[in-house]
Write a structure and sequence with these properties.
Elements lengths: L9 E3 L2 E3 L4 E2 L3 E2 L4 E3 L2 E3 L5 E3 L7 H12 L6 E3 L5 H4 L2 H7 L4 E4 L1 H10 L9 E3 L5 E3 L4 E6 L9 E5 L4 E3 L16 H13 L3 H12 L5 E3 L10 H12 L5 E9 L4 H15 L4 E5 L5 H10 E11 L2 E2 L1 H12 L3 E10 L6 H9 L3 E12 L8 H13 L1
Parallel strand pairs: 7-8, 8-9, 9-10, 14-15, 16-17, 16-18, 18-20, 20-21
Antiparallel strand pairs: 1-6, 2-5, 3-4, 6-7, 11-12, 12-13, 13-14, 18-19
């Protein structure tokens, strides 16, 4: 299959991986993932990033076809994570005159990942705002530390107004997957980049000063239209503001009683006009739960007590939220315990470690199984949460 074009002189040479089951060995990717790589054809020929070793052979075919016998002059390294940098050594060995473009941290990491003898004559060291001319095209480099590694940089091509955005604006799913962009981009963002909202905000400020017509990320489709929509979502996400009004109701149940109470609470909330997403933490991948926690303005947690503590799936979920800097949300708690309920105080302790959590004063405490006598407290808790 011939490589598609980004523009007449900028070619996509990446690959789709439909065999991978877990991205970064933890996130399920039922529709696979793309590893994006690009080539700019000019007087000087630049390759922007390589691909994961899983896609090496197809990438080399795409590269050979695009080069059409030419020798590449530059390899621009946006990000040293192996799904993008996995073929740096191979490419440098194939083309002994190739120069590698990166910042100081890039070259430190190249030495950590590879046994590659890269003399200074093959290094093009760039810093904030530096440019590199290819002929008709000029590349300008902007540092993006901690989006989401410290060496990350983005590249702006001035003549065709293309931003090569590293992991920014990426998503799960192969390029031929037909699905809503925001869903898998949101899950990708919050689980991988989400901890670093401040650095993302800094990068967005730099991007706002550029005239951008095309965004070329390292995962997912090239973005050409309605760029304000994508940039607006990134602004909302990186400020840790809710995208939608609604409640994520996440429950962790042992024998089903807590789950039944959660289902009843969802019914109560919906009767009061709330949008509710019900999530069984025992059966839903935590990356999906994290995505919805950040998407909605409110969260209600219902958990069973376990070993004088908290049922493991709820505990793991809250640790994930803390790691991704969950904040600026209203939260309500329901606990269940047959003799010494402990889930509520454990959930509160974990939430207390997060920023700007508006926790409801009331808490529903169920003993073993929900009963009619629990309903008034559940109604009151629903009212308090929705008033926040």
């Amino acid at each position: 299959m011939s490589a598609p074009t980004v523009t007449s002189t900028i070619r996509y040479i990446g690959v789709d991986d439909k065999t991978i089951d877990l991205f970064e060995s933890q996130y399920p990717v039922p529709n696979g993932v793309s590893y994006n790589s690009y080539a700019i054809l000019d007087q000087k020929l630049a390759i922007l990033d390589t691909v994961d070793p899983r896609g090496t052979e197809q990438w080399l075919k795409n590269l050979e076809q695009t080069l059409a016998g030419r020798q590449p002059d530059y390899l621009v390294v946006s990000h040293m994570e192996p799904d993008h940098a996995g073929n740096i050594q191979r490419l440098c060995e194939m083309y002994p005159n190739l120069q590698v473009v990166g910042n100081a941290k890039t070259f430190t990491m190249i030495g950590q990942f590879f046994t590659l003898d890269l003399p200074d004559s093959r290094k093009v060291l760039v810093g904030e705002g530096d440019t590199l001319s290819l002929g008709a095209h000029t590349l300008q480099f902007f540092m993006a530390p901690m989006v989401h590694w410290p060496e990350v940089m983005v590249t702006y091509e001035q003549s065709e107004k293309v931003l090569f955005s590293a992991d920014g604006f990426g998503k799960f799913g192969t390029l031929d997957t037909q699905e809503d962009w925001a869903c898998e981009a949101r899950r990708y963002y919050f689980n991988i980049v989400g901890k670093y909202g401040g650095p993302v905000q800094q990068l967005l400020k730099k991007a706002a000063a550029l005239d951008i017509e095309i965004i070329c990320p390292l995962h997912g489709p090239v973005l050409r239209e309605n760029l304000g929509y994508y940039i607006g979502l990134y602004d909302t996400w990186s400020r840790y503001q809710p995208e939608d009004e609604g409640v994520l109701l996440a429950h962790a149940s042992i024998h089903g009683h807590t789950a039944k109470a959660a289902e009843k609470m969802a019914e109560i909330l919906r009767q009061k006009g709330a949008e509710v997403v019900l999530c069984d933490l025992n059966r839903t991948d935590v990356s999906e739960a994290v995505e919805d926690a950040f998407r909605y303005s409110k969260m209600l947690l219902a958990a069973a007590s376990y070993d004088a503590g908290l049922f493991p799936s709820m505990e793991a979920f809250l640790h994930h939220l803390k790691a991704k800097t969950y904040q600026n949300r209203a939260v309500a708690l329901m606990e269940n315990g047959s003799w010494a309920p402990s889930a509520g105080k454990c959930m509160k302790a974990l939430l207390d470690e997060m920023k700007n959590i508006d926790l409801c004063e009331q808490m529903v405490s169920i003993r073993s199984a929900m009963k009619e006598t629990d309903l008034p407290a559940m109604e009151a808790l629903a009212d308090e949460l929705l008033q926040k």
